[in-house]
Amino acid sequence: MLTARRRPVAIAAALLSGALLLTACGGDSDGGSGDGKTLKLWHYETADSAMGIAWNEAVKEFKAKHPGVKVEFEEKGFEQIQKTAPMVLNSSDAPDVMEYNKGNATAGLLSKQGLLTDLSGEVTKRGWDKKLSAGVATTARYDTSGVMGSGAWYGVPNYAEYAMVYVNKDLFEKYGVAVPEPSATMAELTAAMDAFARKGVTPLADGGAEYPAQQYLYQLALSKADRSWVDGYQLYKGKVDFHDAAWTYAADTFADWVKKGYLSDKSSSAKAEDAGLSFIQDKSPLFFSGSWWYGRFKSENKFDWDTLLWPGSKLTLGSSGNLWVVPKGAKNKELAYDFIDITMSKKVQNLLGNSGGIPVAADASALTDPRAKRLIGDFTTVSGRDGLAFYPDWPVPGFYDVLVSETQKLITGSAKPDAVLSALQSAYDKGAPKK
């Protein structure tokens, strides 16, 4: 979920049938030093999210297939794992299997530091590579420098994700604003935001203290970018200029939206949960965020709602979902591999899809929920046009915190867009691989 997200190979419509194959070799077959009686599992999905629902079922399946084995599950916060993983994984407290953010600055960094198990052997042995399209598999493989897209398998994704605009249709009707259609233009969406602002309603839910604000900034840049721009930024293919047309438009527009009241100037301290709750609680008519919210909105929203892709942009934030990783120091690795295998099963994949997630190995005919079909249909549209652009914090270690800090300055007005872009350039250049 969240911030990480990434590589430019298209995830074809064959996503659900798993038609594209990859090969891998090698791997770490060490089963760990545990007693085989306990599986220590960490993840940060809420119980009512699509992934949470599916993984709870996977735990039940695991217990049925492993009588006498105890599952010790600990729900961790995204930020908690993001900040403490290197320290925890280098200690005796490491879990056997955990959800971890994909991308160069996260899973790539841990693989480079030797903190993750090379799963290549298990991937081919269990056929996971045959269930993943090339685009989805990109974030699972890292080279010796920790750059995604090639090399050994250090993680396994069992879902995909992308960002979209969530629309509270009831609030639009309440305030007499035309509900944007899936085919809406950016001009039409902007006119709707302006109409809400003039009525004293902040149209966009936001969270400046965590990932939502930086994802607005990145999406604005993506609307003026192309695939080569993404490759340069995410994969270091060419010089990255934060004062180019795309980034300049993004920073200027973001600051302008704050001034116009489209984004709250009080949102700098709001977290992602605050932004999501603002939408759930019928306070914000619009929220741009990821498909990881979909299952929760489906279960908690008490109003009529819909989704649409960001208007006028072929690119959007998205990639495989987060990864199942097995820490190098995990004590019961074989149990971890068995659990991952269950999450890739048709039963769990179909449940994930019907619960509002985007499965990577489901049976398309088993997906019966209309909203689920719409969600996956839009994802197929994005992936089919090679539109997954990953996430803004991915390229360099520590960039997530820099993006949070700098977008907060745009929200509070404590720095001009040009100064914010210069700060991002400095941090990026410092962390990017030297050629």
Would you spell out the secondary-structure blueprint of this structure?
Layout lengths: L37 E6 L6 H16 L4 E6 L2 H12 L7 E4 L3 H9 L7 H7 L7 H4 L3 E2 L9 E2 L2 E2 L1 E10 H6 L11 H13 L12 H12 L4 H9 L9 H16 L11 H9 L5 E5 L3 H7 L4 E4 L9 E3 L2 E3 L7 H11 L2 H9 L3 E2 L10 H15 L14 H14 L4 H15 L4
Parallel strand pairs: 1-2, 1-3
Antiparallel strand pairs: 3-11, 4-5, 6-11, 7-8, 7-9, 7-10, 7-12
Helix pairs in contact: 1-13, 1-14, 8-10, 8-16, 10-17, 16-17
Q: How would you describe this structure in keywords?
A:
five-stranded antiparallel β-sheet, disordered N terminus, 42% helix, 435 residues, alpha+beta
What would you say this structure looks like, in words?
- The structure is a single chain.
- With 435 residues, this protein is α+β, with helices and mostly antiparallel strands.
- The chain has helices at residues 50-65, 78-89, 104-112, 120-126, 134-137, 169-174, 186-198, 211-222, 227-235, 245-260, 272-280, 294-300, 333-343, 346-354, 370-384, 399-412, 417-431; strands at 38-43, 70-75, 97-100, 141-142, 152-153, 156-157, 159-168, 286-290, 305-308, 318-320, 323-325, 358-359.
- The strands form 3 sheets. The chain has a 5-stranded mixed β-sheet with strand order 2-1-3-11-6. Strands 7, 8, 9, 10 and 12 form a 5-stranded antiparallel β-sheet that branches.
- Helix 1 links the parallel strand 1 (38-43) and strand 2 (70-75).
